[in-house]
Amino acid sequence: MEILKVANIWKTYVEDQFVLKNVQLTLNEAEFVSLEGRSGAGKSTLLRIVGLLEKMDRGGLDLFGQATNGLSEKQCARLRLEKIRFVFQSLNLIPH
User: Which fold has domain 2-83?
Assistant: First the structure.
């Protein structure tokens, strides 16, 4: 079963400075992958987009067979609650 399909994702933070440019990725159930790259290469940005925490500028993202383009914030929150788990690099939720 295909659990993630990233199709032609683009993301910029500053005009004409691409963080992600035409990224494509497909992950199937039971696959294990890692992202590697230098600082600033877009790894965290891609993970935030895949986790529905950030919007892409263009492209498509399907999670568990469901297209995510056009989902409301409430629908994204529901999908995160039911299907996605996060382990943050730093403890962002509890200040102590």
Answer: Rossmann fold (3.40.50)
